[in-house]
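Fold this sequence, please.
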Amino acid sequence: MLLIDQLSVELAGVQVLRRIHAPVLTGTTVAVIGRNGAGKTTLLRSIMGLVPVTGGSILLDKAELLTQAAHRRAALGIGYAPEDRVIFPTLTVLQNLRLPAEVLGLSAKDMDLRMAAVLEVVPQLEPMLARSGAALSGGQGKMVALGRALMAGTRMVLLDEPLQGLAPVLAEQYVQSIGRLRRLRPELSVVITESNASLLTGMPDQTWLLERGALSQQQPAAH
């Protein structure tokens, strides 16, 4: 379980997150809904150690994440797909996907096992494996970012605005992939940020409403 406890973040003198307190239970999918600028991306970056935290704590199975460097958090089994994808253009899709596993020092056998699991969840990636990262559309890049997050995320994956800007066909494929992920890896916790709650209908177990850096409401999601 991940417990965010009284988390506050201030960036450039602006209070971005205000005493966030919420748990992410093992095996649940949480949607974080809020307008642009509400603090959704900062929340995920705080969990990953990519922004400085000014107060509170983040506990993963009772272990404090804030004492861990960002790369160590990935090693603890947290995968992250940023909103801007960050696909390496000079690498192939396969190399982009394998990169987290290589950085973590996994064996070739373990990398192959994780790759097989990723392709089962996101089968659209298989015909793209030999393609250059520079040749991907924005939507294809989001699918690759999802697969890459899953290569590292054995306990939790954080998906930042994954449906933003996707064509309807790709958005439907992405939602189907999340459905397969929930079915094939029920132990995995998933946190998804989104501005438009309707895009995630039927997907999350719980919804957090984030307004001006504070959680205004937590509620079981309507299915």
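DSSP finds six helices and ten strands in the chain. Residues 9 and 53 are 5 Å apart (CA to CA).
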